[in-house]
Amino acid sequence: MLSSPSQLLLRNSDYLQGNVLLLNHENDLCAVELLTHCDAVTALALDYNHYLALQAGSLAGVVGHFGHQLPKPQQFDTVVIYYPKAKALMAYLLVLAAQYLGNGGQLLVIGENKGGIRSLEKQTTSWFAPAVKRDNARHCLLYSAERNSTVATVDLNQFTSRYTLSTTNGELTICNVAGVFSEKQLDQGTELLLQHLPALHGRVLDFGCGAGVIASVLLQLNPQLQLECVDINAMALLSCQQTLDANGFSGKVYPSDGLAQVSGEFDAIISNPPFHDGLNSTTDIATTFVADSFQHLQAGGLWQIVANRHLPYADTIAEYFGEVKVIAENNKYKVYRNRR
């Protein structure tokens, strides 16, 4: 089933020209549907599960990629941006689109009204003419803008913020690329988790690694950890790698849809797990994470997370671990710790 923005895009297929690039596309097969309206379609997913869904249902003529940019420079006649949940990410997507469009090329931007797409009208750039509203349907908007001749170069440093995290063992540099959770300071949930970290050894998984805050603190405490960091978001993975590099740490950073791409067992799993899928909050991520974590822990392995108090973790934790242990809490968060 196509998302509402994708349906709006197909309804306006006359605006599509030649070779088309979809940026930050959604979890559907719109790229396949577009083949009847253009010469070829390339899709760059920033969410790994969106990439996997397209790979599973793709046809010849559709090329899918996952990451913060395409693996090599290319030029397209039309670039379509799906307006991101994080508005800060839109500035990055605009310069990325400008880099991939030739002079006179067409930019299309689509998104849900509740996702903030109306603010596009205020986002002026030196690479595009002012955006023009083309359609309004299914609680979504479609804008278009023509590419001009101004040169566009993506400089990740312009989209990366950094802050210093002070710990009892020294200072750490945290790098956040545009659109990554808690980009200017440590969030309260992670702070509570870090205040109650146990001594760890062996193979450890940081699930939903984000900017690499938990990973960097773990490695600061024990540089010998065999640390693996997974996330579903390309910008988060980029941020995590930058954070590890900035502090001289090493770890394995890779994409995973939940724990589907994780192999083997761990001595510990530590996380401030996500509970949003796009614009929507969902409990499915929480319950699935608990079940999958249990299967990836060694006997006696430690599982510790921080979560919003309102999230329904307790029943699932009790089902798999046999009991629910809360080792710290405040008015917003709880820190759970169990062993297999």
**Sheet with most strands: strand arrangement:** 3-2-1-4-5-7-6
Helix content: 10-25%
Multimeric state: single chain
Principal-axes geometry comes out as: elongated
The helix count comes to 9
- The percent range for strand residues is 25-35%
What characterizes the major β-sheet?
A: 7 strands, mixed
Total count of strands: 18
**What's the Cα radius of gyration?**
21 Å
Low-confidence spans: pLDDT under 50, at least 5 residues?
none
Series of secondary-structure elements, N-terminal to C-terminal: HEHEHEEHEEEEEHEHEHEEEEHEHEE
How confident is the prediction overall: mean pLDDT?
A: 93
Alpha-beta classification: alpha/beta
N/C terminus separation = 39 Å
What this model shows, in words?
It is a single chain. This protein has 340 residues and is α/β, with parallel strands linked by helices. The protein has 9 helices and 18 strands. It has helices spanning 4-11, 30-33, 48-57, 88-100, 188-194, 213-221, 234-246, 284-295, 314-321; strands spanning 19-23, 40-45, 62-66, 76-82, 101-112, 132-137, 140-146, 160-167, 170-177, 203-207, 226-231, 252-255, 266-271, 276-277, 280-281, 297-308, 326-329, 333-339. A 7-stranded mixed sheet has the order 3-2-1-4-5-7-6, with helices on both faces. A 7-stranded mixed sheet has the order 12-11-10-13-16-18-17. It has a two-stranded antiparallel sheet with strand order 8-9. Strand 14 and strand 15 (280-281) form a beta hairpin. The longest helix has 13 residues, at 88-100. The radius of gyration is 21 Å and the shape is elongated. It starts with a helix and ends with a strand.
